[in-house]
Amino acid sequence: MDHRMMARALALSAKGAGQVSPGPLVGCVITTLQGEVIGEGFYVYEDVKHAETLALEQAGGTARGATAYVSLEPHAHFGKTPPCTDALIASGIKRLVAPLEDPNPMVSGRGFDHLRSAGLQVSSGLMAREAKKLNEKYFHFMKTGRPFLHLKLATSIDGKIATRTGDSRWITGEESRARAHELRQEYDVILIGAGTALADNPLLTDRSGKPRRRPLTRVVLDERLQTNPESRLVQTAKEAPVLIFTSQSAETRKAEVLQMRGVEIVWDSFKGRDLLAVMEELGKRSFQSVLIEGGATVAGNLIDSGLVDKVTFFLAPVIIGGRDAPSVIGGHGAERLIDALNLVDVEMVQRGRDIEVTAYPAEARDTE
Ligand SMILES: NC(=O)c1ccc[n+]([C@@H]2O[C@H](COP(=O)([O-])OP(=O)(O)OC[C@H]3O[C@@H](n4cnc5c(N)ncnc54)[C@H](OP(=O)(O)O)[C@@H]3O)[C@@H](O)[C@H]2O)c1
Questions:
Q1: Nearest protein CA to atom 44 of ligand 1, as residue
Q2: Distance from the CA of 274 to the CA of which of 27, 39, 260, 300 falls in 20 to 30 A?
Q3: 155: Cβ below 6 Å to ligand 1?
């Protein structure tokens, strides 16, 4: 039963996707000793109440002697809300099952200690791997102070993103593109390079139709400030934020025009092409996660820099061919095969005629 209830708590927590950053996804299920569910809840940032409180309210007096399944360690400090551990203790819950400690230093281990010292039976470790994966953005952000980087690309099966004449729309099918919009909903930031901004004039908004806490922030790496003030990105900057990272030498008159139209220009932290500095700046702004949507230059430089935490490729069953047709990843690339980026935890899903492949760089996994 523990496994089934924890799976339910994890599934509940996932309902908060897009609505919790920079906090964690949390779900809670409360059951009687016989396994009857008497309360459920999940966390969304704007709600004053945490998952545990919502579930306890539903359970009411029946929570006495019950078991609480929570997808992450309950907090024992005063934050936006009073400690959830106090609420669990006061309700008479007898047993707490939670997969992992919260990586937040304000919480880590203290929640479990508080509950144990109040006489609750606490067990941890159940479905820990699944729970950590579900909160991979939060764990990464807590550990590094930088956002979790997810590189998403769409390519032909021979790794091309356009024909030799530059024709690129659309390589993948509708199902893949709909899925890409779902992905956007789970991220705080979407990032491209100036090349994609100029070539595609993209809008880069979240059109998933699902709720989100803050608008998707659109970021362009644009050292020479080439972004067109008439572009769709700039024209919509007052509705959904646009940040352009540029260098000190960029033309100030053009910067002023862009700023007047609602774009925020970031000059200082963009030292040359220092992607780490860009990510640190985004981290300071409490962005927990970034979806990289192109193109080959930015993707290649990010792979070379070792900053990518997750990759998703949509592979279309077409062969474009041609030595001069651009490939999906630029940058320097590996010198020897042994230096190539090794991917692990590979998952594949069919999307119409395409295949969605999601995986993690082995190096990123090793340092966890
Ligand atoms: N199939 C796909 O999934 C996909 C996705 C996106 C784009 N695309 C295609 O890719 C093509 C554009 O490719 P691209 O390589 O030019 O686009 P890109 O990677 O989006 O942009 C590259 C440009 O970004 C700027 N930049 C600034 N800082 C950078 C940094 N740290 N690292 C790398 N670049 C930095 C550089 O311009 P400055 O030197 O001026 O700063 C660079 O030339 C388009 O045809 C587009 O349709 C395909």
A1: 196
A2: 260
A3: yes
Whole-angstrom distance, CA of residue 12 vs CA of residue 156:
36
Examine the fold and report which residue of 136, 154, 185 is the final residue of a domain before the chain moves on.
Answer: 136
pTM above 0.90, yes or no: yes
Range of the domain at 218: 145-366
Residue 221 near ligand 1, beta carbon < 6 Å: yes
Same domain, 187 and 284: yes
User: Does ligand 1 have an atom closer than 6 angstroms to the CB of 244?
Assistant: no
Looking at 104, 136, 168, the residue that finishes a domain is 136
Q: 283-342, pLDDT tens digit by residue?
A: 999 999 999 997 899 999 999 999 999 999 999 999 999 999 999 999 999 999 999 999
Judgement on whether residues 120 and 160 belong to the same structural domain of the protein: no
| Residue of higher predicted confidence among 164 and 80 | 164
Give 95-109 pLDDT, tens digit per residue.
999 999 999 988 899
